[in-house]
Write a structure and sequence with these properties.
It comes from Leucosporidium creatinivorum. This is F-box domain-containing protein. By secondary structure, the chain is α/β, with parallel strands linked by helices. Among the domains are: about 1-70, no CATH class; about 290-380. The protein is built from 15 helices and twelve strands. The chain has helices at about 25, 30-40, 45-60, 60-65, 80-90, 115-125, 155-160, 180-185, 225-230, 255-260, 280-285, 300-305, 335-340, 355-360, 360-375; strands at about 75, 100-105, 130-135, 165-175, 195-200, 215-220, 240-245, 265-270, 295, 320, 350, 380. Helix 5 (about 80-90) links the parallel strand 1 and strand 2 (about 100-105). The two termini are about 30 Å apart.
Length: about 375
Amino acid sequence: MDIQPDQQPASTAYARPRQPADSPAAALPTETLQHILELALEDDEDPFERQSTRRSFSKVCYHWYTVVPSPIEYAVSSARSARKLALRLRQSTSDPGEKVRSLVIRLDAVNGVNRGGRTAKLLEACRNVEHLSIDLKSALTGGYMCDGGGMGYRLYEAAKKLKGLRVLELLEEAYVSPAALADIVEVWPELHALRLNCKFHPSCRPPPLPVAEALRHLDISGDVELAHALLPYIAPLRTTFSLIVRGDPLPDSRFSGLLLPFADRLDKFAAPDGWLWSSTLRSMFLNMKNVHTLELHHSIIKDAHLVLELHPLAELRELIIVGVATSAEDCAGLHVEWLLSHLFPSFERLRLPRQLAQLWTAAETKTVEDRAEQSQFELVWT
């Protein structure tokens, strides 16, 4: 994939592409164009799509090209494109690597044996990156396999030099070990958000545990070994934090029990992929005294079967129900109306999948809408 989000104007006497000065495209005010671009990027979470949008926008005419700001976010999908971008950033005076704040790196298994070395050049060119996402389709070999998150020696060492890193994501076949977790906390003391939806290798000897003072957002897979190794880094703190658990934890994994001591410190909790209901999970919900946002897969609410008690959660302001139901049978037994009748009066917003409105009967939909109106909270179909 071509990683250049913007193209430099060609050295010609006319605007690129040729557009009459009074054409509709060239005549739009700059403020209007900026607002259009902001709206186009607003709801797109995929960095590759945002990059494509910026690039397409800049191709309309020279006026539109000038509106697209020098990008602070890049996304690359091969080691070759990473090397080419690194070279361009090093040579550029108008778009230097020092301006880059976000990098998304996705590497496939077919990218060759020196993927880590070529990709490391990009990190070396962008020393001020604050958000780094590494998505590996296969682990990179070569040195520091215990410590390097599957990145390979050169990529791992280059990442450790990003002293201002605040958000780190390791995905797919990237992996962490106890030693890597200690490195993450020690090397990046300003780390604010950590997403580990990757493999965990508990084979290395656990090192001394530093405290993750700045960590406020955790996004992890439902791996009990990963949770067991990670949670001690935030145990000494009393600050609140948000937690997303992806993947349905195994019923016998003791995952809920590990999280129970941290329940009263959660200000946001999300389980978007399901979670088998249990008495421990119920206790965890009841102890979320400071949670203001809950995002739950619809299967959790079904499995709870009228025992999901949210009324003790005085700080709860928003409930988000996710998961695509494919039939009326899938969404039967949600008991949303019952759930809404047991919420604290300060509750503000319910978000429901739009597909539910298509699968429910008109009477079921009206019941929920009437409850929202009666209790004076906002109902949002997403």
